[in-house]
From TrEMBL:
<dbReference type="GO" id="GO:0005978">
    <property type="term" value="P:glycogen biosynthetic process"/>
</dbReference>
<protein>
    <submittedName>
        <fullName>Glucose-1-phosphate adenylyltransferase subunit GlgD</fullName>
    </submittedName>
</protein>
<keyword id="KW-0320">Glycogen biosynthesis</keyword>
<comment type="similarity">
    <text>Belongs to the bacterial/plant glucose-1-phosphate adenylyltransferase family.</text>
</comment>
<dbReference type="InterPro" id="IPR029044">
    <property type="entry name" value="Nucleotide-diphossugar_trans"/>
</dbReference>
<dbReference type="InterPro" id="IPR011832">
    <property type="entry name" value="GlgDAde_trans"/>
</dbReference>
<dbReference type="InterPro" id="IPR011004">
    <property type="entry name" value="Trimer_LpxA-like_sf"/>
</dbReference>
<dbReference type="Pfam" id="PF24894">
    <property type="entry name" value="Hexapep_GlmU"/>
</dbReference>
<dbReference type="Pfam" id="PF00483">
    <property type="entry name" value="NTP_transferase"/>
</dbReference>
<keyword id="KW-0808">Transferase</keyword>
<feature type="domain" description="Nucleotidyl transferase">
    <location>
        <begin position="20"/>
        <end position="158"/>
    </location>
</feature>
<dbReference type="GO" id="GO:0008878">
    <property type="term" value="F:glucose-1-phosphate adenylyltransferase activity"/>
</dbReference>
<dbReference type="InterPro" id="IPR011831">
    <property type="entry name" value="ADP-Glc_PPase"/>
</dbReference>
<dbReference type="InterPro" id="IPR005835">
    <property type="entry name" value="NTP_transferase_dom"/>
</dbReference>
<feature type="domain" description="Glucose-1-phosphate adenylyltransferase/Bifunctional protein GlmU-like C-terminal hexapeptide">
    <location>
        <begin position="281"/>
        <end position="351"/>
    </location>
</feature>
<keyword id="KW-0548">Nucleotidyltransferase</keyword>
<dbReference type="InterPro" id="IPR056818">
    <property type="entry name" value="GlmU/GlgC-like_hexapep"/>
</dbReference>
Amino acid sequence: MDRIAGIINLDHEQDLLDELTYFRCGAAVPFAGRYRMIDFTISNMTNSRMESVAVFARRKYRSLMDHLEQGKAWDLDRKRGGLFILPPDWNDPTDLSRGDLQHFHNNIDFIKRTLADYIVVSGSQNICNINYRDVLESHKESGADVTVVYKKVRDLQPEHNLAHKLTIDDSNRVVSIHNDQQSSNVYMDMYIVEKDYLYYLVENCIAHGCSHFFLDGIKGRLPDIHINAYEYEGSHALINSVESYYRNSKKLLNRSAHDELFKEQSPVYTKIKNEAPSKYARSSNVTNTLVANGCVVGGHIEDSILFRGVKVGKGAVIKNSIIMQRCEIEENAVLENVILDKDCTISSGRTLIGAPEKPFVVAKSKTM
């Protein structure tokens, strides 16, 4: 069986989630009640039987490192292979690389030493449940140099305007990578390539003074290299703004959408926290809401998501909102179309109301 290693490249991902990325990178943003966005990427890799995963992180990665630890939650705390968090700590005076190529160049030992035959490179902003073994089979059958993954999106949203799009011929060969806002072939910021060819492309890019591996080394080499397109047909969400985060989080309140992402045969793993089950007081009334463990609920909640350890006082009302870990909503407070980051306190009687298309966001550890 062919071996695959994974690289999660966060270097070029912009922190566009406003208050939610004040203190963390986008990959560490909590999502779906008990996970972080990067959990989906790592789980996809480990479910595809990858034994080595590297994370290229450049800024605001303290929260990310605290969450990932040694990779135990994903069975990556192992003697051979495992999880490698690779922040920008290098001091090579001969290094001429720029941009995310600095990560590839200064961590080239990870690529050289891995026993894998192929490397999957992915970001963290595309939430999905994909089997990279299927991508590998498509890659091998096509005989391509690189295989990129895309989603055919019928209902384009504002977040797709920032994504690259693909033009594909009848043989699934990519003929153009562009930013046409009307195109439905959304590139999912993930691709697979042979290890030796990846090494060659990295060295070639650095020799020519490039600064972005995908844009310069892959997109910039069309049509000289054969790029195959693999269509992913499962659940997908692109999260690169507060609005896309809010909208795609709320979609998980639909049972079919939730089950399509969280599949029994390919589970999503996260850091384990042993907490008691949630408690519901007689005064509570909860409908169509995801409630994580450790919560204490005494108020009215509908169409919302509560992360671990949230406390909701008697008489409080929460509608269409996302409440992250350890927040406390005191008695008779009202929240509607609101996102609370971790450790926030909403005082008794306080009312916060945002718009459905523009939720009101409260940064971490605020008291209002």
